[in-house]
Amino acid sequence: MGNGKLIPLVKRNRTMRSFWIGALPALLAVAAPPPRESPPARPAWSYADAVDLALAAPVAAHVRMTQAIPLKKEQAAGVRPGFFRFYVEAETVSLIRAPQALPARVNYVVDLPAGPGGKPPRLAKGSEFLIFAAPAAGEPGALRLIAPDGQAPYSAAEADRLRAVLREAGAAAPPPRIIGIGKAFHVRGSLPGESETQIFLQTADGRPVSLSVLRRPGETPHWSVALSEIVDDAAAPPARDTLLWYRLACALPPALPPQSLAEGAGGDEDAAIRTDYRLVLDNLGPCGRRRGRS
Question: Same domain for 120 and 229?
Fold first, then answer.
């Protein structure tokens, strides 16, 4: 009889225990606050930074680290204060740019900022990076980063942006590099408030490039850039974060040099040219380089 009374009690205990175990995930879900989404990571480089590196580096690649060995002080001469030097071995995941095929495994040296407490940072095996480098003398697969910050965490968006930059740069007639400003001219129109300013730019390969600013009464001033002798007044200004925008925003000086106005009439005409040049700079916006800045 005693055993007959205990069996239902054991069953009830097991039933209650099963209920609480089954309900625990739901209770925890109610009690715990919803997970907070991580803010999107800030791009490693601005557009101008990425173009600077992409155009200067013979090799741009997506790599996956297999090991990173901190070098001793005697092997890390010239390392900046607060940085540690690592010898990195990595697998080549994909090439974005290279003069020739890279081996499946590459190696290079990189300087990285100290981690918490001033200790060497921890680098997890399998971490993926974008690197800008050049082939180094020695064993096949040996690379040399072209700049101390020539490595950054990989992201598909960053890799796609670099591919777009290199496609533009590799086109049949990419926007030329601007090296200075030539002559500038201003012509008044037949109506009050109507005028046109033309500013000729100097390029590394001698190709013609000019800026035009057209003003008409009652209309917003319009400016454009011509990459040939023909000026199209209906052309739109270059879109931001394109190679042409970069060539202009990162090369044009903050003010016109005096020699650009040497053939002008002076006075109001020079002032109008300077005003129109400022309009172009304001519309382009800052170049946005931030490499080397804290």
Answer: no
pLDDT 10s digits, 161-187: 999 999 999 999 999 999 999 999 999
Which residues neighbour 19 within 8 Å (Cβ) at sequence distance 6 or greater? Answer: none
- Which of helix, strand or coil describes residue 191? coil
Closest by CA position to 107, among listed 135, 128, 70, 126: 135
Phi, psi of 150 (to 5 degrees): -80, 15
What is the separation of C-alpha 156 from the centre of its chain, rounded to a whole number of angstroms? 13
**d(Cα 137, Cα 186) in Å, to the nearest integer?**
55
Bridge partners (DSSP) listed for residue 57: none
Residue 165: name the closest of 238, 93, 101, 241 by CA. Answer: 241
On whether residue 13 sits in a domain, the answer given is no
pTM for the structure as a whole: 0.79
| Residue 227: both structure tokens together | 């990459």
Tens digits of residue pLDDT in 247-274: 999 999 999 999 999 776 678 899 999 9
259 in any annotated domain: yes
Domain that holds residue 273: 178-284
